[in-house]
Amino acid sequence: MSRIGKQPIAIPTGVDVKINGNDITVKGPKGTLNRTLSSVVSVVMEGKEINVVRPDDSRPARAHQGLVRSLVANMVTGVSTGYQRDLEINGVGYRAEKRKRFIRFDLGYSHPIFLELPESVEANVTQTAVSLLSVDKELVGQVAAKIRSLRKPEPYKGKGIKYKEEKILRKAGKAGGKK
């Protein structure tokens, strides 16, 4: 039984929601998001709330109810407040620099790495930190994961790119085993 799927989604002031069959458009002060939702469940707007209704208690209907409810809630939150993901760069000589729609990374390889940002993602870049901002939660997470994968943090010295809130489990080096 989906407890998340049964919760209504409150629509904040300044956010406009249009439902047309399986398509939903959410417009707010930060931007506009469109999405085609699953046809297994239906989305109903009642006053200033959105409810996701399933036709029966089948397994796919229960699963889709929770998924669709989470996707719509993320859309509403994104256009009203937006999403932010922060990354830190650790290591001697490791740095980032923003150049128009690209971010240049120097991460200890023999060449710099250039990453192009999608249109709806903004980035605030300092030498050792990258902050991604967007209305689309899925896209912010995807770009952050791509940046992190350029040089994952290693467990011995902690060098690499990590999420700001991430804790790196450190290992002892070769000398750590001797006594």
The major β-sheet equals:
4 strands, antiparallel
Give the helix level as a range of percent. 10-25%
- Write down the overall geometry: elongated
Q: What would CATH call the homologous superfamily of the largest domain?
A: Ribosomal protein L6
CATH class of the largest domain: Alpha Beta
Name the quaternary structure. single chain
Strand content: 35-45%
Spatial strand arrangement across the major sheet:
11-12-7-13
Tally of separate domains = 2
* CATH hierarchy: architecture of the largest domain: Alpha-Beta Complex
Overall pLDDT score: 92
Radius of gyration: 21 Å
Helix-strand makeup class: alpha+beta
Order of helices and strands: HEEEEEEHEEEEEEHE
Uncertain segments are: none
Query: What is the rounded distance between the termini?
Result: 55 Å
Give the total of beta strands. 13
Q: Count up the helices.
A: 3
Q: In the CATH scheme, what's the topology name of the largest domain?
A: Outer Surface Protein A, domain 3
